[in-house]
Design brief:
303 residues; 14 helices; 53% helix; globular
Length: 303
């Protein structure tokens, strides 16, 4: 039986990238990044993208595939990442999926079909509700209560997506979720480990990470991107959105720093909740991740 497809997941700042790099180097694996933002060239500091030296040490896939002006959709990423996994397997190597985006992870490993999208319809909905996200959520609650119950009222992007699907298909967004309630991977023997950290430890690591990004040139990176017509996905990335506001004079740097810190903390907690709902994830403290990956890989091969 071929080696299983491995995955290392967890919230931002949990240390999964460094752990994955070390494990992949020892195991002889190749890393497939599962992230909506490391696909963008020129967005390096704010995404904590692996350095060139790290990529020379271990091959990485699904990184630097798009210009920031291009839109990264889940459907597009699903195809790219799956192709990367197939390529690694075809060469007799082990793919190691690494990331913190629960949506993108599920899209890659599970048999999910996504409803259609239309940029003009979405743009019109965004313009209509930009000033009042709670009103958008209230509208969704009227038209699709099940979807509204699953979506954070402050997450305008997801609310608009649900409304867009209703506009385009006449069906509720929640009706497309059948496969989401199951966890049957398209990759036989998928073995998933999550990096576990307690809340206080994770929050402290988030604060340190945000400070490090600013010290390493996030403002300068954003300044280089500011004159370009960034895609909706690229311009909404945590850290970039706030620094762009700073560069336009709407936020001082200290306030931008605080907003990035708070937003990243909240995102990390959402990531934890997402992966905790996936029964395939075997959780391990950082020092036990290597051993746990080996154990779940062996168990997957035995099944």
């Amino acid at each position: 039986m071929p080696d299983p497809v491995l995955a290392l997941v967890g919230p931002t700042a949990s240390g999964k990238s460094d752990i994955a790099l070390d494990f992949a180097a020892r195991w002889g694996a190749e890393i497939v990044a599962v992230d909506a933002f490391t696909v963008y060239r020129g967005m390096d500091v704010g995404t904590a993208k692996p350095t060139r030296k790290q990529r020379d040490r271990v091959p990485h896939h699904a990184i630097d595939l798009l210009e920031p002006e291009q839109e990264c959709t889940v459907q597009w990423f699903q195809a790219q990442a799956r192709a990367a996994v197939r390529d690694v397997v075809s060469r007799g190597r082990s793919p190691l999926l690494v990331g913190g985006s629960g949506l993108y992870f599920r899209a890659v490993v599970d048999d999910l079909v996504f409803p259609p999208t239309d940029p003009d319809v979405r743009a019109a909905l965004e313009a209509r509700h930009a000033a009042d996200p709670p009103a958008a959520h209230a509208r969704l609650a009227q038209r699709d209560p099940a979807a509204a119950a699953r979506i954070d009222p402050d997450n305008l992007r997801r609310v608009v997506r649900a409304l867009e699907v209703i506009e385009l298909t006449g069906s509720t967004f929640s009706s497309w979720r059948t496969a989401w309630d199951e966890h049957h991977s398209v990759f036989p023997g998928l073995a998933v480990v999550g990096v576990a950290r307690d809340r206080d430890d994770l929050s402290a690591r988030v604060d340190q990470r945000v400070g490090t990004m600013l010290a390493r040139g996030l403002v300068e990176e954003c300044r280089a991107l500011a004159g370009r017509r960034l895609s909706r996905t690229a311009r909404q990335a945590i850290g970039y959105a706030e620094v762009f506001e700073h560069l336009t004079g709407r936020l001082d740097l200290a306030t931008a720093h605080e907003q990035i810190r708070v937003r990243t903390r909240r995102y990390a907690l959402r990531q934890q909740r997402w992966f905790q709902a996936d029964p395939r994830v075997a959780w391990a403290m950082p020092e036990q991740v290597h051993a746990t990956l080996l154990r779940v890989a062996e168990e997957a091969q035995a099944d």
